[in-house]
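User: Sequence for Probable GTP-binding protein EngB below. Tokens please.
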Amino acid sequence: MSTDNHNEPEAGKGVEAFDEETVERARKLFSGPVAFLKSAPALKFLPDPDVPEIAFCGRSNVGKSSLLNALTGRKAIARTSVTPGRTQELNFFDVGEPLQFRLVDMPGYGFAKAPLSVVETWRRLVREFLRGRVVLHRTLLLVDSRHGIKSVDAEMMKMLDEAAVGYRIVLTKADKVKASELEKVRVATQAEARKHPAAYPIVHVTSSEKGLGIAELRAAVLADALL
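Assistant: Structure tokens for Probable GTP-binding protein EngB:
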């Protein structure tokens, strides 16, 4: 697990720069073999910790599956749950051949319709995974651009801070917001990120539908995996 930052841009720029070689390498890697490995409903089912892992988390309906599909250039690499908040498994995907690293799709949070027992099971699984997974290099925390950081996102940020897991905040669905409003949300989100010890100080702005920020996020994932 790492909270180290890298490639930090000049103060106030709000954009992370990656060289063309890294961007192209990431594109080729994600356009190559990406395969579902397994689902783990409990820690005893986790795959061996033999390669770096990058995890994705976010509240239900934040667009996590769409982002994973966009990153990998697939239409259905990540399947969405029929009932938000019900899927309580960690899903692992192998990237590259030979294997380079794994993506981990964490169960969504924000359990408006979930029983208390489901919520507690989620908390225990996620907390133990974050604190004990030595190959977890970075977590991407997805936040809906239309709403910004909500209380459930703040709770997740606290959990990540306490587990000392470095994380990037990724704004999703940027195409659903007017440019002026999007910039306000980005600035506010970035200001909040800088208050958290484990948060990367630059916020990624993405649209899975329009492809906005996808190439840069691929490069960031690759860079984090190689830490």
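Helices lie at 20-31, 64-72, 116-132, 151-163, 179-193, 214-225.
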